[in-house]
Design brief:
- By secondary structure, the chain is of the alpha/beta class.
- The chain contains 6 helices and 6 strands.
- β2, α2 and β3 form a beta-alpha-beta unit.
- The longest helix has 20 residues.
- The two termini are 28 Å apart.
Length: 167
């Protein structure tokens, strides 16, 4: 099954991590590839203590501004190659491609390459794609699409990101 968590609201990564936790609790093997992210976060600290969940990051410590650099592209391509290998090995039950929609939106990765991986995945494997601006082609082939919509956010009132809540 293909799951997509998209939209401009906060909680897409949190949702997929909750699913990873549930899967691990059921004895399933989970792989999480985080695109465009790098650094020690609270979720990484928690997940490294759980058997059956592997998490890797494919990004830099800086966000893409004003446009992607060569390092962003190389890191994302490395991540996509790794995801392709993970899917082909068929050793995981749940594979999460966190923020892959943003990598596609910024044209860091090619949609055809992602589609190839999704179509080659075994029917018994669940794949989760997160990030804003999910391409319509992905929305069409997905089995589940959840849009997380921002109604109100404290960032707009000048509140800063907090450890344990945003990272």
């Amino acid at each position: 099954m293909i799951h997509i968590y998209t939209g401009n609201g906060k909680g897409k990564t949190t949702s997929c991590l909750g699913l990873a936790l549930r899967a691990q609790g059921a004895g399933l093997k989970v792989f999480i590839g985080q695109f465009l992210k790098c650094g020690n976060t609270s979720e990484l600290n928690a997940l490294k203590h759980l058997k059956g969940i592997t998490i890797e990051q494919y990004g830099r410590k800086k966000f893409i501004k004003p446009s992607p650099c060569v390092e962003d592209i190389k890191s994302a391509e490395t991540g996509l190659c790794r995801i392709n290998k993970i899917v082909a090995e068929k050793k995981h039950d749940l594979v999460i491609l966190d923020e892959i929609n943003i990598a596609l939106h910024f044209k860091i990765l090619k949609l055809n390459d992602v589609m190839h991986i999704l179509k080659s995945a075994p029917k018994t494997m669940d794949l989760v794609l997160t990030g804003r601006n999910a391409p319509k082609e992905l929305l069409e082939i997905a089995d589940l699409v959840s849009e997380i919509k921002e109604i109100k956010h404290y960032y707009k009132n000048g509140k800063k990101a907090r450890k344990g809540i945003e990272f």
